Amino acid sequence: MIIDILTLFPESFSYLNSSILKRAQESGILTINIIDIRTFSKDKHKKCDDYPFGGGAGMLMTPQPIYDAIKSVQKENSKIILPSPSGKTLSPSLAKELSKEEHLIFVCGHYEGIDQRIIDIFSPLEISIGDYVLTGGELSTMVIIDTLSRFVEGVISEESLAEESFSNDNLEYPQYTRPADFMGYKVPEVLLSGNHAEIAKWRKQQSEQKTLARRPDLIKGKK
Ligand SMILES: C[S@@+](CC[C@H](N)C(=O)[O-])C[C@H]1O[C@@H](n2cnc3c(N)ncnc32)[C@H](O)[C@@H]1O
Fold first, then answer.
1. What is the pLDDT of residue 63?
2. Ligand 1 center to residue 112 CA distance, Å?
3. Do 72 and 172 fall into the same domain?
4. N or C: which end of the chain has fewer CB within 10 A?
5. What is the rounded distance in angstroms from the CA atom of residue 149 to the CA atom of residue 143?
C-alpha cells in the first residue's frame, strides 16, 4: 500500500518511522511519503493560508497549493482522505475497509481547515477521530494510518488482531508478564497453570465482565 501525506508540517510525522510501522516500511508492505504542500504554492512568499471570506476567527488553507499537491500524486486508484471533525467517525470496520486500498492520499487541514472547493472538487472521504477539535490534521492522519495499517496483511499477526479490544465486540482481558509476583501483586494462578482451556475460559470471562462494566454498548443486543 502506498500512502501519500500532504501537509504544511512535514516535521510532525516522525512517529510513523518507528516501531511496527517502521518495520512495515522496511519490509516493503507500506510506503509512506510525506509531501510539503507549501512547495506547491504559486504565491511569491509560498503563502498557503488566508482570511476567510465573510469574516470570522483564524485563517483558512488556500485551495491552489492543495489542488496542485493532490494532482501531483493522484492516480486512477487513489482514495483521498480528509481528516475532519465533520467526517465519518473512525471505527475498526472503516479502518479494515481502508486497509484494502492500494493508494491513500491524506490531506492535513490546519488553522481553521481548508477551502470548501477542495472538498467539492475531489469529494474526499472525510474522517473524524472523535468529537473534539485538534489544531491540525497531522495527528488525526497518524491515528488513522496507524489504525488501518494493523489490518494490512503482514503488519501484525492475525492472532494479535483476533484477541484485541473491539475484535469480538468486547474489551481485552487483563494481561500480565514477568515477574509473577511484583511487590506482592501476584499474577492470577490460572495464567501460570499451563492449562490452555482454563486460561481461555478465564480470559473470556474477564473480557465479558470488563465490557459489561465499562462499555455495555459494545455487547450486541444491549444497545
Ligand atoms: C482547528 S481544526 C478545524 C476545525 C474546523 N474549523 C471545524 O470547526 O470543524 C484544523 C484541522 O484539524 C483536523 N482535525 C481537528 N479535529 C479533528 C477530528 N476530531 N478528527 C479529524 N481531524 C481533525 C482537521 O484536519 C482540521 O482541518
1. 98
2. 7
3. no
4. C
5. 10
